[in-house]
User: Which sequence fits this backbone?
């Protein structure tokens, strides 16, 4: 009987996998992996986005470059790019986080800038996080870092019930320990501010608004339990009720703890993909309430030296990769 | 077909005893891809872009959390990126890199399916293409100072 159950489970897993992710590769930074965990190709940079015509964006601590399929640099935006580079739902705008340092050698602090570019590299929006901090009466994270933004997305078309500020074209940005900001479409006004936790050790990553109007994020570090155990969770929150509608929590809890980084991607109503900073990429089925696929190689093969991965996402890069054979 | 044969014939006809082109062709695992160009200027741009891509791929950085360098010293040493050189006969860049099974760079020789190889970008005047040549590395064939268009 146990064998029959195992075979049935395997068939179901194969079916789930085949339906939702069969046309995707896994992208970790600027490296592309297949679902056998083999690295298919590496591109320059730390944070990349790939386009169907073979061109791509490459972000580093020095700049964001747009390169053609022939490796020609078409434009470059100078700045310290960190954490992630994202695209608007219609793929027309580029969002990223950059940092300014106010004389750090004289005790100044880091302040982030959030920038939106057009596909041809023109600055559409650029706003300092210091303005938002004033609006929500926040002083800052530490003496040396006023903010430490780690995710920045445009809000997609909303098909479910959500508060008024959750509107297509607005933005959601998250700063470690400070909190999550819902920003107006011109980036000037904080429409809503949510302080997730006050503990210095608590942080969340990769905060996004889903088309159902809910917020999904990687919750890195819960305060320790009574026996001093730390653990991470993946959460989907209804912003109207503040209720967590979905949570992934490992059993035992400590088996999944990613202190500094983490990525999450809702593939559909069943499948959620998320990545731990060190241990790899997980595919979780909400219907089956279990991990249905796991790849360690997405992390260990990304860099010859073992180092944390910010996030791994499933992306359909078939058209892009056809230019790089 | 003529388009592909012409550069090969040109290279062969241009050969002299100094040329290592024949050595290249006869080595095991030789692979060549042709990138069409209309002029020497265009060829220069193609070769510069290709070499810059590899340079950017191996740009050193440190992860912000643990400070671990992206590339080890060993890896940067065994991946030798060539410089683009021009002669009266053509343009070339010869790199010695660790390539994977499909001929892609960005590796450090830490797996059996990776191998040290030569990656050569070559354009000789009169060609319609830049040649991207990949072949197994061999100590016996010293190419770094030779003009392959001679």
Assistant:
């Amino acid at each position: 009987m146990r064998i029959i159950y195992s075979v049935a489970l395997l068939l179901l897993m194969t079916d789930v996998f085949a339906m939702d992710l069969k046309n995707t590769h896994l992208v970790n930074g600027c490296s592309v992996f297949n679902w056998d965990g083999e690295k298919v190709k590496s591109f320059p940079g730390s944070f990349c986005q790939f386009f169907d015509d073979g061109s791509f964006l490459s972000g580093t601590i020095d700049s964001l470059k747009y390169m053609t399929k022939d490796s020609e640099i078409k434009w470059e935006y100078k700045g310290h790019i960190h954490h992630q580079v994202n695209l608007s739902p219609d793929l027309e705008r580029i969002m990223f986080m950059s940092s300014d340092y106010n004389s750090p050698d004289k005790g100044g602090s880091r302040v982030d800038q959030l920038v939106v570019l057009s596909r041809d590299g023109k600055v559409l929006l650029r706003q300092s996080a210091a303005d938002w901090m004033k609006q929500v009466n926040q002083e800052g994270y530490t003496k040396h870092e006023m903010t430490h933004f780690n995710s920045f997305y445009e809000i997609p078309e909303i098909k479910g019930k959500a508060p008024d500020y959750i509107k297509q074209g607005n933005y959601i940005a998250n700063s470690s320990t400070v909190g999550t900001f819902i920003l107006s479409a011109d980036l000037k006004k904080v429409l809503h501010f949510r302080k997730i936790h006050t503990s210095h050790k608590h942080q969340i990553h990769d905060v996004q608004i889903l088309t159902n109007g809910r917020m999904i994020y990687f919750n890195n570090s819960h305060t320790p339990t009574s026996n001093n155990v730390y653990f991470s969770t993946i959460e989907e929150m209804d912003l109207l009720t503040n209720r967590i509608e979905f949570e992934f929590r490992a059993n035992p809890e400590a088996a999944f703890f990613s202190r500094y980084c983490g990525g999450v991607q809702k593939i559909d109503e069943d499948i959620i993909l998320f990545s731990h900073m060190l241990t790899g990429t997980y595919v979780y089925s909400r219907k089956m309430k279990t991990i249905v696929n796991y790849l360690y190689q997405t992390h260990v093969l990304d860099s010859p030296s073992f180092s944390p991965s910010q996030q791994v996402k499933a992306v359909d890069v078939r058209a892009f990769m056809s230019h790089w054979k | 077909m003529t388009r592909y044969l012409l550069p090969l014939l040109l290279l062969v006809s241009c050969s002299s005893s100094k040329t290592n082109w024949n050595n290249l062709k006869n080595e095991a695992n030789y692979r060549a891809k042709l990138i069409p160009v209309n002029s020497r200027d265009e060829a220069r741009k193609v070769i510069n872009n290709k070499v810059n891509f590899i340079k950017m791929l191996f740009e050193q950085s440190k992860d912000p959390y643990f400070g671990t360098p992206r590339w080890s010293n060993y890896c940067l040493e065994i991946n030798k990126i060539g410089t683009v050189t021009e002669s009266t006969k053509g343009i070339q860049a010869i790199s010695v890199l660790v390539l994977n099974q499909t001929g892609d760079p960005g590796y450090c020789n830490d797996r059996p399916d990776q191998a040290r190889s030569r990656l050569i970008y070559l354009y000789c005047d009169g060609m319609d293409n830049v040649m991207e040549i990949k072949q197994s590395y061999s100590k016996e064939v010293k190419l770094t100072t030779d003009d392959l268009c001679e």
